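Entry type: protein chain
Record version: 2
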Amino acid sequence: MLHRLYISNFTLIDQIKINFNSGFTTVTGQTGAGKSIILGALSLVLGKRSESDLLYDTAKKCVLEAEFKSNSKFVKTFLKMNDFDINESIILRRELLPNGKSRSFINDTPATLKQLNQIGAEVIDIHVQHENLKLGERDYRTFIIDAFGGHLEKTTAYQRQFEKVSNLSKLLSNVQSEILKQKQEQDYFEFLFNEFEEANILIGELIEKEEQLKKLEHAEEIKSTLFSLGQLLSNDTNGMAEQSFQAERTITPLSTYTLELQSLAARVSSMQLEIQDLANEVNRIESDVKLDPENLSIVQERVNLINQLLQKHQVNTEAELITIKGELEEKLAQIHGGDDKVTAIENELEVEKGQLEKFGVELSELRIACSPKFEKELISNLIQLGMPEAKFEVRCTKTNDLEFLGNEIVDFVFTANKGVALKKVHESASGGELSRILLAIKAIVSSKTKLPTIVFDEIDTGVSGEVANKMGDLMKSISSKIQVLAITHLPQIAAKGNQHFSVYKDHNSEKTLTKIQLLEGDNRVIELAKMLSGDKLSTVAKENARILLDN
């Protein structure tokens, strides 16, 4: 139940604190006094998006706070799963800042508007005037029947299964489209892959082949130059190898005289060995160099092939070409295995559709089975609300396809007059009749939804007299099971509250303020008398007010 509402610096409210009791609470006040402001503040606490220019003092923040008490398992699970403190009370707070931003809290822990909305939907139901129009919405009518029948969990299971089937259908469509697209490109992919297969490129191959190509292209020049170098190094008469040998023989006898000469001889000997080794290496390389036009052509083609592939695929290395080849191989594998994937999804979809159809049939049977009882109880309530000739039916029209709301369209048809054909309720009922129908529905369904609090915002619009009295009785009856708050302009309803608040405007300050007052004793009598006769109080009006309270 709603235990407390605190409002600070909000529109025409400086600061008010309202403590609510269980049972039936009524809120009254002249038109424009600010009843809607209080309801607006409560809506913001429950996650409604804020508008600009809501601050009473634009230099200070606005604080809106509501305290609820709830034994709901969902609420406790929600708090635990989202790391909110679990206390005896649930405190929802909304702060509107002067810069236009807002902050939200659940039990003093920062929260999102979505989280406020989620938890708010489990602790309170606010009926606003335009909710009468909801009777024209298929999902709302369906919810009413499902809530009355007590099979909301079955509805949730069906809708989850519907989403599962929808997701599988989308997946199948996407896979089929992708495979069709890939099959259209299959020949091209295969051409590219086969080109890579035939090329059989190895990492580092290009550098190796380019070096080999240079050697083959300049083989004659290399061979000639190396031959000349070899002659220079190893000519028997005046080659560098022979001269270094002669130098070694000349210095060696002196090496025993001093350490300096010994070092010099060692260097000459080392030089002689290095020149000899160099001459051998030059001769070996020269003998390896072949004039091979055929091999030159082969290597040239290989280098050209690799460079063409690099340019074609706009990459720089053989490793990147090998990666592209792997991707092509994977695409071809997907194409070749695509039909199997489609078949697997189709089989799964068939199974899940069968389960959905089963859930749909079960849900239809439950809705059809509970409809007569719902009709009977609703007509009984409508008779009490001054419509003795009312007729009401729930009509379930089977749909051609499985839909999110089930296998049928739920319609409410109604007439308030004898001998008049039944028509869809949202098309045929007057404003006052819609108010009574919705109140009758709320009376039936409220205990089924397990919501601890329901708020009626001028649901009595368009009614008066004895009908208003009956509406008050019905709201009073609902309050024996759950907390009921009614914002009303009718004294017949206001008098039935266990608790009665009056909203009024205070013009004594520099700026008009909206205030709220708990009425007790004579103050309550005076408020009801004003509602009966206007500001000119009479003894008769006061006596009538006391009679209303006594009844």
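Comment: The chain has a mean pLDDT of 89.
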